[in-house]
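This follows on from our talk about sequence and fold. Can you supply me with one protein entry, sequence and fold together? Could you add the entry underneath, on a fresh line?
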Amino acid sequence: MRIGLAGVGRIGAFHARTLVGFGVIDELVVMDTDLEAAKALADELRVEVAPDAETLLASHIDGFVIATATPGHAPLLRQGIAAGVPTFCEKPVAATLAETIGLTNLAAASNVPVHVGFQRRFDAGYRRARRAVESGELGFIHSIRANTHDQSPPHASYIPTSGGIFRDCNVHDFDILRFVTGREVASVYATGANKGARFFSDARDIDTAGALLTMDDGTIVLVSSTRYNGGGHDVRMEVFGDRGTIAVGLDHSLAMHSAEADVDFPRGPRKRSFMERFLPAYRAELAAFIEVARGGRPSPCTVRDALEAFRVAEACELSRAQRRPVALAEIKGV
């Protein structure tokens, strides 16, 4: 197999090293708008480098991995589909709802498989929770808690183009919520605040958020996020049913300590970043994409899936801005 990869920043370089390390692809070709950075990674991995996306897509690749900054996702995804090349694209596929809808329709009208990079779908804990829900092990599900708490904020330059905390951060919670429950979000009520650096409010964003979601079967979901969780990176989900409860991310790396006496849980060490927290999941999702590119399985996370998570994020932003509940029916879809 010959795989092309666009974007050699942190996640792109990680994906390139992962693909080379698999030992199941014959050739890797990398490109980036920063040609020197692409050449440096290519030299390190002893792979090819392409000067631009057009050259890369014309070089008879069997799969295309998009790991650029967000503004590059939509145009490169269109190019990948137009070239008929199975494509993996990091989230979000686009920065706006309208563009995401357009890409959803474009992908649906083609026979080109597109796999969107929501890596939590490949995390062992979330997959175990999905099985517990599907099998009825937990009985009927009445409540869920989900959180994404970053240890420290990203660089100030990232925030103005991030799309906001619901689209950038909690969109992972919204996607995995659909994956674990098999249900859709019916309505949201969201809020948020700034208690940290001024650059969040300067960009009309928030550094801490909370949302109450109601699923289409009446399940209540509490979602939270923050850019300031000094104890460590903390991503969890708790699923409550009438027969039992299951928790994802409840291990010795948990970024908190107990106020109770004689409790030695968790013992650590704590995770410090999303890359550390989801390292095995990132590898598993790329292995799945290789299967998709080979024609061995359908896409495990489609552009339509990405759109549905994005619609929930849009509803949360509208709810926060207007300080009211928002039904998902108010948010345009396909």
